[in-house]
Design a protein that fits this description.
Blueprint lengths: L1 H35 L4 E5 L6 H8 L8 H9 L9 E8 L4 E8 L4 E5 L2 E5 L5 E4 L9 E3 L19 H14 L6 E4 L5 E5 L2 E6 L4 H13 L8 E4 L12 E4 L1
Parallel strand pairs: 1-3, 4-7, 7-8, 10-11
Antiparallel strand pairs: 2-3, 4-5, 5-6, 8-9, 9-10, 11-12
C-alpha cells in the first residue's frame, strides 16, 4: 500500500514538473518570437500629401518598433505612437507578419512661401507637403523672415516667437473659417492679412483672439462687401473707444 502511494505521488510530481517545464518552454518561445519576429512588410494608405515613407520611418524608428508583436501589443494596450502630421491611424496585422496602416492626416491650415517654393503646414506647425494643390484655401505666409523651412519638420524662424505668432493666427483663422489670401509680417512683427481687395492690419499678437472675433463679426455683417482699402484692428481689445478704422482706397 505504501509503495503504491509513493508511486502515485512520484507520478503526480512528475506530471506537475512536466507541466511547469511545458509552460516555461511555451513562455520562452513566446518571448523569443516577441523579440525576434520583425515586420516583414508595411503598407501605408490614406495619405493625401505623399508622406508614406516619412510615416513609416517614424512609426518603425527603433529596433523595438520594428517588432511585429510589439506593435500588436501596443495596439491592444492603446499605447501607439503619436505621429507628426497624423490625426489618427489604424493598424491591421496579417499572419505573414505584414502590417497595413490606414492614416488620417491633420488638415493643412497654412502655407509658407520660401525660396520659390510653397510649404504647407498643419495647426501644430509641422510642414506636411511642398508645392502641391490643396482642396481648400489657406493663407500663404511671406517667408522672408525665415532662415530655413524644411519638409517634415516643425516650422521655425529667425525670431523664436515668429512661428508661434504664425500658428496662433492661422489657427484662429481656421477656427473661425476665415479664408485669408495671405499673411505678412513687418520688421516689428506686425501682422497684416489680405482678404481680396481688403487688407486687415492686426498689429502685434496682443489681443489677437479679440481682433479675429471682431473681424469675424464684421465679415458676418457684410461690412467689407465691395470695399477696397485697409481695415485697422491694431487697437481692438485694448479698451479704446473705437475698435477699428477703415481706410478706403
Amino acid at each position: 500500500m505504501f509503495d503504491e502511494k509513493l508511486a502515485r505521488h512520484k507520478k503526480r510530481k512528475k506530471r506537475i514538473l512536466t507541466g511547469i517545464l511545458a509552460i516555461v518552454g511555451i513562455l520562452a518561445i513566446a518571448v523569443t518570437v516577441f523579440f525576434t519576429a520583425y515586420v516583414a512588410d508595411c503598407q501605408i494608405t490614406g495619405s493625401k500629401y505623399g508622406q508614406e515613407e516619412e510615416i513609416e520611418n517614424e512609426l518603425f524608428s527603433t529596433p523595438m518598433d520594428q517588432r511585429f508583436f510589439y506593435q500588436f501589443f501596443r495596439k491592444l494596450t492603446h499605447s501607439q505612437k503619436q505621429l507628426n502630421g497624423v490625426a489618427s491611424y489604424h493598424m491591421e496585422f496579417s499572419p505573414d507578419l505584414s502590417v497595413k496602416v490606414i492614416v488620417t492626416e491633420n488638415p493643412i491650415i497654412g502655407a509658407v512661401s520660401w525660396e520659390h517654393n510653397r510649404y504647407y503646414f498643419d495647426r501644430y506647425g509641422y510642414v506636411m507637403a511642398k508645392n502641391i494643390d490643396v482642396s481648400s484655401k489657406v493663407p500663404v505666409v511671406d517667408g522672408s523672415n525665415f532662415t530655413n523651412v524644411s519638409l517634415y519638420e516643425q516650422l521655425g524662424g529667425v525670431k523664436s516667437s515668429l512661428a508661434e505668432d504664425i500658428l496662433q493666427l492661422t489657427q484662429l483663422l481656421d477656427d473661425n473659417e476665415i479664408a485669408a489670401d495671405s499673411i505678412s509680417y513687418d520688421e516689428k512683427m506686425q501682422a497684416v492679412i489680405a482678404l481680396g481687395d481688403v487688407k486687415v492690419s492686426l498689429g502685434s499678437r496682443d489681443n489677437m483672439t479679440d481682433k479675429i472675433a471682431e473681424l469675424c463679426a464684421i465679415l458676418d455683417s457684410g461690412g467689407l462687401n465691395g470695399l477696397k482699402g485697409t481695415l485697422h484692428l491694431e487697437n481692438c481689445g485694448d479698451g479704446s473707444t473705437s475698435s477699428y478704422i477703415f481706410d478706403r482706397e
